[in-house]
Amino acid sequence: MKSQLAIKQNDAYMNIVITTGCPDSGWETSLPTLQQLGLKKSGHTFSKWCDELFQETSITDPLQLNQPLQPNSAQTKKAIDLLSDEEVSNSLLWADSRNLWLLNFWATTFPHANFLLFYTRAESALAYALQQKADPEQFIEAWQAANQQLLCFQRRNRHRSLLLDAEAATQHPAALAKACQRIGLQLQPTDTPPPPSTSAPALERLLASQLLHKQPTIQNLQMELEASTQPLGETTAHNPPQAIEAYHSYQQWQAQIEQLTAREKEQAKLATEQQTQLTQAKQTYKALEAANKETEQENELLLLQLHQVQEELETIFMQKQQLEQTNKEQSTQLKQRQQENEQLLLQLHQAQEELKTALLQKKQLKQTQEKQETQLKQRQQELDAAQKRSQQQLEQLTKEKRAAVNKNIEQTQAQQKTKERLEAANKEIEQENELLLLQLHQIQEELEQYFIKYQALTQPPENEQET
């Protein structure tokens, strides 16, 4: 399935109409008629592609071409990409004299495009070329080569190309639209009357007639073109120019030359007057320049004095700035010292407060230590009493155990009960001993902590040692 872009390109090249003719022959006079019939001429993008192609071939004059061109792959890709350009895709009429040698390329690249090939009669074409200042011998050779190329291409592509007389196409637009239907090209005839036929001045036509006189190859090619041309209707008769017409044309040309000569004389007179004025202006300029030199010397002296005064003022100004800067620095230093003194006073007050707080804490810790020592002594006494009671109980139980053993050796049950009671008592005594030992260890740890704190309090502070 084709993409939308491919479909758009296919529709575009099916509607392309490529037109061309011999360069400098005047075939372009038929283009306004084609535009009236609904064909929109391509713009800058297509012409730019042709310019780039011919720049690469180093050909500046289309008349120098004498064989078909075959663009390379990169140029071909650019040509195909023209269809994606909105300006070109909306322009159906690709008209350019350089298409003459690209006909085979366009036919291969765009197989559905149509071709309108225009030629101009040899005499009219040469007269038009003489107006364009073309070399007559070079143009005659180019006219022959170009029209032979049109004939060959039209014969190979009859189903989609028409060979047309440019003058007849201009005079008969309706017949042109009807003829285009033969190759599937639908144009819209209009009621606009055809433009009046124009011909080259008689002098150029007379020169063209004389240059083409007794050239059978030109006459034979002209007849071959007329035989292969799509008939459109009768055209304005091209009567050979009369000598009197050429004479009148020469008189007009001579009058134009006289007018140009008179203008040149007036311009030469004006140039002479301007040269005189320029000489006077130079003399006045020299006098003014001498006066200016004296004025410049006086100005230089005044400027020198002014510079000296300015330098003195700058020196005074710099000294003033330095003095102000010194005052600012001293003021800044004074402020910094005041701030440092204030900070030192603040730190001194803070140290005094901290010292008072430390002394108060030392006094409180001493009182706390005394209380803890008293409590420690009391706990030590309680521990000693508990140990004595435990020892007494142990001794008493031992005595009772010995008495019970000696008294009832035979009474197994009583002995067993006594043994169990003794074991239970021993367990209780052991538990009480472990509890007492645990309390003793706790009291020792507390005494060690109190001793460490007491040593920390009894040592004098570092500040007091330094003092």
Quick rundown:
This protein is mainly α. The protein has helices spanning 4-14, 31-36, 44-56, 73-81, 86-89, 103-109, 122-131, 136-156, 166-171, 173-180, 202-212, 216-228, 243-407, 412-458, 462-466; strands spanning 17-20, 93-95, 114-119, 161-165.
How would you characterize the largest beta sheet?
4 strands, parallel
Strand content: under 5%
- Give the number of helices: 15
Strand order, sheet with most strands: 2-1-3-4
Task: Provide tags for this entry.
mainly alpha, 15 helices, 4 strands, disordered N terminus
Account of the protein in words:
The chain is mainly α. It has 15 helices and 4 strands. The chain has a 4-stranded parallel beta sheet with strand order 2-1-3-4. Helix 7 (122-131) packs across helix 8 (136-156). The longest helix has 165 residues, at 243-407. The radius of gyration is 63 Å and the shape is elongated. The relative contact order is 0.06.
